[in-house]
Amino acid sequence: MSLNKYDIVVIGSGPGGFTAAVRAAQFGAKVVVIEKSFIGGTCLNYGCIPTKFLWQSLKTKQKIQKSYEYGFKATLEPVIFADIIAKKDRNIANIRKGMEMILSSYSIDIINGFASFKDKNTLTVLDSGITTEVSTDKIIIASGTKPSVVKNFIFDGDKIINSTDALNLKEIPKNMLIIGGGAIGIEMATIFSGFGCHITLAECENYLLPNDDSEISEEIRRNLLRQGVDILTACTNALGDADKYEKVLIVTGRAPNNDLNFEKARIKTTQKGFIETNEFCQTSVNNIYAVGDIAGKNLLAYTAQNEGAITAENIVKGNSIKIDNFVVPQAVFSMPQSASVKVSNFSQCKDIIFGKFPFTASSRAFIENERTGFVKCAVDKISKKPLAFWIVGAHSDELINTASQILKSNMEHISRETMFHPSLSESLLNAYEDAFGKCTELPKSC
What we know:
Blueprint (H helix, E strand, L loop, with lengths): L1 E10 L3 H12 L4 E5 L5 H6 L1 H18 L15 H25 L3 E4 L1 E6 L2 E6 L2 E12 L3 E3 L12 E2 L1 H4 L8 E5 L3 H12 L3 E5 L11 H13 L3 E3 L14 E4 L3 E3 L5 H4 L22 E3 L10 H17 L12 E3 L5 E5 L9 E7 L4 H6 L5 E7 L5 E7 L3 H13 L17 H9 L12
Parallel strand pairs: 1-2, 1-6, 2-3, 6-14, 8-12, 9-10, 9-12, 10-11
Antiparallel strand pairs: 4-5, 5-6, 7-13, 15-16, 16-19, 17-18, 18-19
């Protein structure tokens, strides 16, 4: 057993762990990353990036099919899905190489294997029967999550599959049952139905995206129905018909990767197995921090990145920066995309008025032939400050960044001269103005 000594050990190289490792190295710390699989974690290898690549591939297919609307005559050869998957894998490999190069440029070591706590300053790493022991002053846990399972159903990688399995299918199934109407379920339904699979999407709650705005949920439902997806809501027994489907994809949530012997370091966890952390991302053990999904707060790549950067500074310089989740945007890659953002205390806000602007009234949407959807805005009636935005429509995943900055900057109002025309982003302004009956781009309401 070899022994290695570092200033900081980072467990996991997903968005949170990678960012934490690089930032800590920028402060001069000697850093090692322990990774049981591939650099980039779930986001790069099994989640965000491959999903968005397949979505973009579908979007490209649809644009070719609609190119006649711009005066082109194009024909599309039959889709070979295995070729799309191969291209997806090549792109991911290239991104991964870039991340490895960045780690190397900062002299950050990488140890492959499964990490396990021996005590609060020592970890053992097992890889192919070889054990390495790592000693350190500080530890950042960024071990992430894995697909959660449904009682009495075991992922076999063939018929009963998880999201990772789905992203590596070489052929499009004839039909598929998707259990879970959250963001992942909607994205999978969109992608696979777009490539010719007959999808049944089942959600146990009364509507899709049960934690989001009901109007957004309904718009997504209608769009999926137009795409040929069968939708079952308030459905608690969909798995009873599992035999009718070629594939059953279960995407009902994520469970923490917590099999690291946390008890050996006396790290406290919640009832669901996530690590308890304070506002500095510090655990119950002073020299150990946790970021990203494993901390169970926001299971999002970009909040993990933010936590990783802040934690690295806190762990090197002492706790001084608190995590601020006052504004956190979210997006779902339906077709078209949807996105939302609101101030964290939105549920306590009073005297709220709403504005809405359809993309059918947007000249830029006409130019891009992307007229489906709308922007909805919530405004404080007294202060006139915008409090939330919901968007269904093309590029909403990009528009929501502008909306987030509007909320984050605590603007008292949105000004027309700050919005380029013609643009989709000016629809944020139009929805805001509509809340006060001042939008000049809409007809007078009855």
